[in-house]
């Protein structure tokens, strides 16, 4: 318990001065461990722990109350200073307001005076300066001599006419009357209404077409003289007419509409839709990014699944990381229905459902160690490898820890192997000894190879622990390489 207290104190970074909350939590956990260990005094220790928790909570509540009261005391102590400051600020603002009011009155008087002078000036201008076009005034842009010259006047008149024509042309090109804009708005409203009517008609025709297809398929199913559904589907696949049509801009893909209609009526058929047509429909739905349709088909409709269909959905999930979890779940459903246990386990592991995968392995006992090695190669998660190398419900681990480490180093997955070595080295010698004793698959030579791997990758203590555990096992003797005279069969003749 003392070692646990010291370890936890160092881990959370506490010292003797605080923080106290971490100390309370550590000692509370120590109380729990003592109570679990000492069964005879469990009621007494539980009562003591309850009093301890109550006492600690009372101390915390008192500390919070003290902090609150200190804050209130500071506020009360600062009230006289705050009041004096506010009074001083009021005096300053009142002085500023008086200055602003005086300036405002002066400015307003100046404005009124200017308005009065402006009004008087306008009256005089209207009374004495009325506009009249006097012919005796000089023409703008011409001198007095030019204004009495007929040729100059004719030339200037032509210049003015050209300028007028240019201005008129610019006006007709750059500007349009307001009535024209109103007419265009009305035309746009009419065009939008026509578009809405056309879209509604298109939707009605699309719905009627789907109803016709559904009715035709239902009638075909009910009739007993028509060919089999599989032959009918093969004829449709041979024509490839829907593939030739391709996409139409602004409209759904015709091939997708076909699959949607066929799969939607799959419950009316005597037999489910065959695997080839199912695969083509799933490919079409995923190519149009309609994962919602594919999900509905896989979970609701009567289809025949295949390994290729599951692979297509899982590959799509690898490309679309946002929907990867949904694709793995759909692939899991398909692989389970097809009896593909290895790929079913791979989907579970990629979703992080390691415990469910282990339970499934306990039920499905045909998996070999090579299959498990391939699984951790495709899904190299340390949590998965730890689950595979631990006992489960009292049963031995499905995979050897030592062989798994050696396999990871042999297939260029050194980082995962080093991470596992780091995890096992944290538990000390007891942890590695427990693993070695409960590992029936890994031989002494394999453990020696693992010890050399640890030594090469900087885990000197772990390598030393493995060698010392091997030496301590009964029946294990270390033979020096320098002693060539050792007779390995000497015990047979005694």
From TrEMBL:
Residues 83-170 form a coiled coil. InterPro entries: ARM-type_fold, Clathrin_H-chain_linker, CLHC1, TSNAXIP1_N. The keyword Nuclease does not apply. Residues 2-115 form the Translin-associated factor X-interacting protein 1 N-terminal domain. Keywords: Coiled coil. Pfam families: TSNAXIP1_N. Gene3D superfamilies: 1.25.40.30. The keyword Kinase does not apply. This is Clathrin heavy chain linker domain-containing protein 1. It comes from Galemys pyrenaicus (Iberian desman).
């Amino acid at each position: 318990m003392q070692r646990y207290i010291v370890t936890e104190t160092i881990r959370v970074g506490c010292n003797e001065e605080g923080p106290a909350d971490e100390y309370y939590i550590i000692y509370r956990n120590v109380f729990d461990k003592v109570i679990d260990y000492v069964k005879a005094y469990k009621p007494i220790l539980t009562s003591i722990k309850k009093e301890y928790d109550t006492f600690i909570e009372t101390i915390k509540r008192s500390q919070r109350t003290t902090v609150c009261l200190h804050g209130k005391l500071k506020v009360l102590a600062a009230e006289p200073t705050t009041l004096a400051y506010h009074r001083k600020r009021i005096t300053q603002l009142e002085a500023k307001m008086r200055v602003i009011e005086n300036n405002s009155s002066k400015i307003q008087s100046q404005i009124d005076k200017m308005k009065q002078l402006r009004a008087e000036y306008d009256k005089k201008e209207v009374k004495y300066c009325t506009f009249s076009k006097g012919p005796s005034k000089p023409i703008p842009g011409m001198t007095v001599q030019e204004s009495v010259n007929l040729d100059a006047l004719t030339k200037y008149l032509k210049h003015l006419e050209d300028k007028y024509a240019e201005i008129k042309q610019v006006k007709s090109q750059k500007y349009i009357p307001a009535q024209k804009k109103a007419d265009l708005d009305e035309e746009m409203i009419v065009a939008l209404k026509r578009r809405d009517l056309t879209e509604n008609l298109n939707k009605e025709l699309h719905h009627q077409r789907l109803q016709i297809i559904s009715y035709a398929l239902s009638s075909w199913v009910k009739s007993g003289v028509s060919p089999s559904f599989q032959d009918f589907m093969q004829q449709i696949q041979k024509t490839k007419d829907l593939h030739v049509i391709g996409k139409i801009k602004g409209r759904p893909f015709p091939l997708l509409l076909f699959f949607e209609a066929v799969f939607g009526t799959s419950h009316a058929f005597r037999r489910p839709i065959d695997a080839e047509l199912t695969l083509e429909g799933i490919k079409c739905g995923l190519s149009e990014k309609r994962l919602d349709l594919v999900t509905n088909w896989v979970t609701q409709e009567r289809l025949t699944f295949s390994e290729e269909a599951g692979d297509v959905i899982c590959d799509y999930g690898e490309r679309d990381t946002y929907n990867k979890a949904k694709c793995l779940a759909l692939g899991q459903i398909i692989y389970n229905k097809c009896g593909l246990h290895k790929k079913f386990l791979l989907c579970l592991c990629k979703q992080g459902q390691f415990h469910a995968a282990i339970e499934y392995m306990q039920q499905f006992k045909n998996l070999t160690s090579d299959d498990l090695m391939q699984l951790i190669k495709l899904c190299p998660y340390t949590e998965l490898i730890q689950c595979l190398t631990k006992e489960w419900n009292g049963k031995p681990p499905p995979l050897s820890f030592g062989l798994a480490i050696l396999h990871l180093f042999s297939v260029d997955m050194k980082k995962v192997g080093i991470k596992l070595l780091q995890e096992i080295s944290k538990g000390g010698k007891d942890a590695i000894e427990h693993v070695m004793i409960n590992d029936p698959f890994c031989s002494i030579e394999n453990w020696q190879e693992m010890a050399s791997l640890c030594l090469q990758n900087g885990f000197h203590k772990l390598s030393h622990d493995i060698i010392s555990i091997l030496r301590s096992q009964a029946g294990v003797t270390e033979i020096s390489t320098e002693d060539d005279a050792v007779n390995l069969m000497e015990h047979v003749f005694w």
